[in-house]
Amino acid sequence: MSNCGRRELLLGAAAALVLHSPAAWAHNAAGVVDPPQPAPATKLTLDDGAVTTLPPLLKDRVTALQLIFTSCQATCPIQGALFADAAKRLGTGQQVAQLLSISIDPDRDTPAVLREWLKRYGASPRWRAAQPDKAQLEALTSFLKSKVAGPDPHTAQVYYFDRKGQLVLRSVDFPPAADVVKSLEQLAGKRAK
Predict the structure, then answer these.
(1) pTM > 0.70: yes or no
(2) Distance (Å, rounded) from C-alpha 68 to C-alpha 83?
């Protein structure tokens, strides 16, 4: 797909997201990321204890990523429900799309705690959770532009990565699960070059 075609695809997905929450555009860095930005090499420990970095986890898949922490009582339960719904909607067919929840509380959110959190919301092979290396968390949140002022230190955005592991789209806060699935399906429809 040409750069023009990719841009049209992403702009269409961004337009669909903004229709649901136009006010969110004023508060977050939402929209198409142009040019796409390669994911930082953040070290992650997955919910099953496997250790990797973000780029290989994203490679050859399209990914919807969210930031959470399991002790959160405000936005994160909604985010968990949103990804649980998206995982159900994605089903068990095409395995190129994945969901990834990364904790912003690596001291508390161990792999075992993250496994329990996933189980609480309806674990799915499509949905993983990860504990980032504490020393690299600031760089990851800066890359995503996910920090906000207030008692909850992160947005409720979803960050979309293409098959090359590049950030291509930032959603508004709390995009509907149907929009998450639609954006992933649109990204999966194009082949990496």
Answers:
(1) yes
(2) 11
CA distance linking residue 51 with residue 191, whole number of Å: 27
Query: What's the pLDDT at 48?
Result: 97
Q: Which of 7-11, 32-36, 124-128, 170-174 has the weakest average pLDDT? A: 7-11
Q: Which residues contact 114 (CB under 8 A, 6 or more apart)?
A: 47, 70, 101, 103, 129, 130, 131
Of 22-26, 66-70, 159-163, the poorest mean pLDDT is in 22-26
pLDDT at 125 over 60: yes
Q: What is the crossing angle of helices 177-188 and 3-20, to 10°?
A: 180
Nearest to 152 by CA among 105, 107, 118, 108: 105
Q: Which residues contact 182 (CB under 8 A, 6 or more apart)?
A: 13, 16
Q: Indicate the residue type of 115.
A: R
Q: How many CB atoms lie within 10 A of CB 117?
A: 23
Domains (range + CATH), the chain: 3-188 (3.40.30.10)
Q: Does residue 161 contact residue 63 with C-beta atoms inside 8 Å?
A: yes
